[in-house]
Design brief:
By secondary structure, the protein is α+β, with helices and mostly antiparallel strands. The chain has two domains: 187 residues, Fructose-1,6-Bisphosphatase, subunit A, domain 1 (Fructose-1,6-Bisphosphatase, Chain A, domain 1); 121 residues, D-Maltodextrin-Binding Protein, domain 2 (3-Layer(aba) Sandwich). 29% of the residues lie in helices and 25% in strands. The protein has eight helices and 17 strands. An eight-stranded mixed β-sheet has the order 4-3-5-6-7-8-9-10, with helices on both faces. The radius of gyration is 19 Å and the shape is globular. It starts with 6 loop residues before the first helix and ends in a 5-residue tail after the last helix.
């Protein structure tokens, strides 16, 4: 499949590789792409459309909700619910799962999504993104929260849409990682990054050093090593997870949001952020850990479970994790 191919054609070519495919996943993904295009349009017009700034409410995590958070969340739900391919959805912005309205047919997939990761940066024109994870379930099943509580290894698809200088969609179904760039003049995504592979070792580390006073000894030791003259690493931290991850995926490096004395269970959400990005990075040849084990093997116990996250180039992640396992006095 050549660079420049439309995402629509790419999806149909992929479907043809599986003769018994029903086409339901392709149709589901097509709905997701429409949501991405709508959100991209809103993000680009945010300063003119009066949708910058806070909405005056807090989400389930106690975080201030941005106006674009609400708009992106509503867009995703309305665009995805009517296609007949989903039975339920779960949003990082909402307490409970969202059942597909009874007036629409139900399918054999569920989706989890962070509608607008990094949305607090939108006011200053920094890249933000949507992260999603798709699981397959038994068709016709009466879906409960338990059906979402699956380890990352059971994902059938994961990806993100980055709204930056261009809008990019990057995803995997377990057969490599591919990136598509939106051409707004024709309203279509085109294959721009075929079979993405993350370098084995990178030269970038990304961590919020504002939290250094709360760091555990292993974190401090690793960052000291990364800063040393012999390491040859540079610090790059946007503060928008999708943007930091995307840069490191293409250029090589490591992103760290480990557990610390303030957030002993980590800060990022396992199923909305860590699992989908872990699936992508592993398919690209990288690694993702919580400091103790592989992210993809963790079985969640609750919908909004938090986790530490160390993700990126395989050699860098392995080295960082080794610092967490060093005995400390």
């Amino acid at each position: 499949m050549s660079v420049g191919m439309t995402l629509t054609k790419f999806l149909h070519e992929e479907q043809r590789r599986y003769p018994n495919s029903s086409g339901n996943f392709t149709a589901l993904f097509s709905d997701l792409v429409i949501a991405a295009k709508i959100i991209s349009s809103h993000v680009r017009r945010a300063g003119l459309a009066g949708i910058l700034g806070a909405a005056g409410t807090q989400n389930v995590h106690g975080e201030e909700v941005q106006k674009l958070d609400e708009l992106a969340n509503e867009t995703f739900i309305k665009t995805m619910e009517h296609g007949g391919h989903l039975s339920a959805m779960a949003s990082e912005e909402m307490d409970d799962i969202i059942h597909v309205d009874g007036k629409y047919p139900r399918g054999n997939y569920v989706i989890l999504f962070d509608p607008l990761d990094g949305s607090s940066n939108i006011d200053v024109n920094i890249s933000v993104g949507t992260i999603f994870s798709i699981l397959k379930i038994e068709k016709g099943k009466n879906v409960t929260t338990k059906d979402f509580l699956k380890p990352g290894m059971e994902q059938v698809c994961a990806g993100y849409i980055l709204y930056g200088s261009s809008t990019m969609l990057v995803y995997t179904t377990g057969h490599g990682v591919h990136g598509f760039t939106l051409d707004p003049s024709v309203g279509e995504f085109f294959l721009s990054h075929k079979d993405i592979k993350i370098p084995e070792k990178g030269k970038i580390f990304s961590i919020n050093e504002g939290n250094s006073r709360h760091w555990l000894p292993g974190t401090a030791l690793y960052i000291e090593k990364a800063k040393s003259n012999g390491a040859g690493m540079s610090a790059r931290y946007v503060g928008s997870l999708v943007a930091d991850f995307h840069r490191n995926l293409l250029k090589g490096g490591i992103f760290l949001y480990p557990a610390d004395m303030k957030s002993t269970k980590g800060k990022l959400r396992l199923m909305y952020e860590a699992n989908p990005l872990a699936f992508i990075v592993e398919q690209a040849g990288g690694a993702a850990s919580d400091g103790e084990g592989r992210i993809m093997e963790k079985t969640p116990s609750e919908l909004h479970q938090r986790t530490p996250l160390i993700i990126g180039s395989k050699a860098d992640v392995e080295e960082a994790v080794s610092f967490w396992k060093v005995p400390t006095a």
